[in-house]
Amino acid sequence: MTAVITACPAFSQAYETAAGTKTVQQVRALGAAAEADVIAARRLFHRFPETSGNEENTQQLLSKQLSDLGIEHTCLENHGIIATIRGTAPGAYGSDGTPAHRVALRADMDALPVTEDTGAAFASENPGVMHACGHDAHMAMMLGAVRILRDVADQLVGEVRIIFQPAEEISIGALSMIEAGALEGVDAIYGAHIWSEVPAGTVSCAPGQRMANTDWFHIEIEGVSAHGSMPHKGVDAVVVGAEMVMALQVLVSRDVSPFEPVVVTVGEFHGGEARNVMAGHATLTGTVRTWSEQMRAEVPDRLEHIVSRSAHALGAKATFAFEPGNAGLANDPACAEVARQAVLDTLGAEGVADYRGTLSGEDFSEYLRLVPGVFCFVGTRNPAVGAEHPQHSCHYTIDESVLVKGSMVAAQWACRMLAGK
């Protein structure tokens, strides 16, 4: 799959004019006023994380917050939410009630099966589940943007759709929101991820490819079980699996050009049933990240070849399954430039981050296959407050001072896109 990157013609003039700049002072002031509430919301969501597909309580918490803000919204069966902020500027709507333009802002909701070890006073109260990727921050930042946009509605020539999306971590949430109509009538979309590799207080919103293709694999190994004291009587599936884990890395280290980014990670290894029984079966699952479409197309055959030859060499049998995930994420140049201008408006020149991108994946790419848009990285790295651990770590934490900055950039992007000309 390749992201469909088209220009943003309806808004291509937005960053070339003064459109949207008259709201800058309002956005900054409203952001400052909302900061305490944004931080409080992030801590609330952090206390009650839910894994992908189980976001019932998260949906309820968000719905209450939106209701308290007077924002019309619909709760979906997939646990997502679609909210609407209607602009009241002249020309915002046609005589038939259709908005002059409609842009969308998206935040994801789900957490990870990680046991938290941060010592925070607001640590997870759901054992074994943690917002270790920052989606608690995304929801809070979006609520901050909602507060701002609600109070500058008289500057919006059109409509802002707010998408709260479940199940990003298992790569199906965006597709379920699209199926529910989240992109109907949307001209452009904005998303953001709080990011541990980008300095706190800065935002990266460069054009072009920013994140990798994300695919998955599953390996079943059939050996022959035997007594642990008699290894010559069987075929140890654990030993075969261990050999495969190492052999798969040959694809990266010796089979691909060093100039071609590829990551192969085995995330699960299950084998054996008892400590004195040589395992007759083992399972490996993992992920592959690639930057180019050519390499993405070539990797499955290469991996299967390594798996089959490794199994054969050690007298075992193996089956290999490859599951395509989300395509790489690439920003529309025009929408990215509007985002850069929004960063300049709200944070100044020092707020623009220089970040090369990541081989992490994001199902936000599914939206970008259908409409132009931009995905920003909101920096949170700040060792002074302990915000230095990577996403998905049990120690992961953030610099909460960056939250309202993310809110302001998102709101200002929408303001610029709907400012009129």
TrEMBL record:
Swiss-Prot/TrEMBL cofactor(s): Mn(2+)
Superkingdom of this protein's organism: Bacteria
Protein name in the entry: Amidohydrolase
Pfam families attached to this UniProt entry: M20_dimer, Peptidase_M20
Residues where Mn(2+) binds: C133, H135, E169, H193, H392
PANTHER family per record: METALLOPEPTIDASE, PUTATIVE (AFU_ORTHOLOGUE AFUA_6G09600)-RELATED (PTHR11014:SF63), PEPTIDASE M20 FAMILY MEMBER (PTHR11014)
The keyword Cell membrane belongs to this UniProt entry's keyword annotation: no
One function term, GO molecular function aspect: N-acetyldiaminopimelate deacetylase activity
Cofactor note: The Mn(2+) ion enhances activity.
Residue span(s) of domain Peptidase M20 dimerisation: 215-310
Sorted UniProt keywords: Hydrolase, Manganese, Metal-binding
Record GO biological process: diaminopimelate biosynthetic process
SUPFAM superfamilies named in the record: Bacterial exopeptidase dimerisation domain, Zn-dependent exopeptidases
